[in-house]
Amino acid sequence: MTGASARLSVNGPRLIADLETLAQIGRGPGGGLDRTSFSAADSEARAWLLRRCAEAGLRVHTDGIGNFVMSPDYDAETAGRPAVWSGSHIDTVPNGGDFDGSLGVLAALECLRRIQEERPTLDRPVRAIMFTDEEGNYAHLFGSSALARGFSRAELEALTGRDGDRFVDTFSAAGGDLDAAANTKLNPAMLHATVELHIEQGPFLEQLGHDIGVVTGIVALGGGVVSFLGRADHAGTTPMDRRQNALTAAGALLVALPEVAANVSANAVVTSGIVTVEPGSANVVPGAARVTVDFREAETHLVSALEAGIVAAAQDIALRYGVQAEFDFETTIPPVLLDNGIQTVIAAAATARGLSHSALPSGAGHDSQNMAQLAPTGMIFVPSIDGRSHCPEEKTAWSDVENGANVLLDTLLNLARD
Ligand code: HGY
Ligand code: MN
Ligand code: MN
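Output (structure tokens, whole complex):
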């Protein structure tokens, strides 16, 4: 840096090269990325990220649940002060895209590298974060939930992944320590602010032709598994009126869910993405059917009504089909409004770089909704081409990647100075 007021910018080609390299790790048969948390591909991506940090001279602390906290090596003087954090996740949904989460981690890494290279004098430390299991294979926004609310050992022991594996087994196999995982709750006094850069994952910025989204709030994220328990019987000999077919009940719930959502609000959404059937044979009446239910709602006062509507619909259907309904729902992560002051800083940073911007809410879940429970939090969105996400077609223009990273850098430096 030539002077205290010279503006830093990210190294765009380096950030793009990192995104392209990370996108090579975990490419699956569907053409997208399969980087479920603690899978072999996730471990490979974590190892690669650690190498990139080492090459840049950055320090990395891994906490009990496996979140990475990355720091420059020169800020010992301010290191004890409340820090400015920025990050996201590198795990993906099955057959996911190259940008969801990865952009926020690698842009934060790039910002930290520029800070390390230029060594500006800052009043507060800046840290880049990689959160564990944002996509919630084991628990919604797992890594940041461990920081914000913490998990007891008993809670951790009860967690299972979508493949039916127990978290404790997978975690131990990956070298994790359960006692440390149960001890990750963060003291909010350590934080001054947090900011996350993310792709929009929807169509609005593209429709508006705007470069940057200033995120106003994030919807609630809730759900879990509804199990219908009927009776397994012979498919050829059991008359239709004597069956307790659990899958028929599950099917009725899937059909009922859109109306359940519409009865709560125009913005409420409910999704069932996994159905499992037991015993799972073409010639056996299904004795059990389990469906995942993911629900989102922006208004705090409507969240419990949405959950109650799903439960009531399932109970009603169970009664109608002569089966039992059981519920295993996670603690709902409440909706949050993001910090107004940070929104102003983000908007000003965009304007100063000649970028158009608009305010918009997030319909996707993010670690920021947990971090907002701990410190003033902001989010920056960049456009998603065609609004596509959670699919291999997920894409953001490289110019938008660089713009978003520069707005992130400006925002972090602003927040790190008094
Ligand atoms: O599901 C979500 O909204 C986020 O991508 N984890
Ligand atoms: Mn996602
Ligand atoms: Mn994400």
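DSSP finds 13 helices and 16 strands in the chain.
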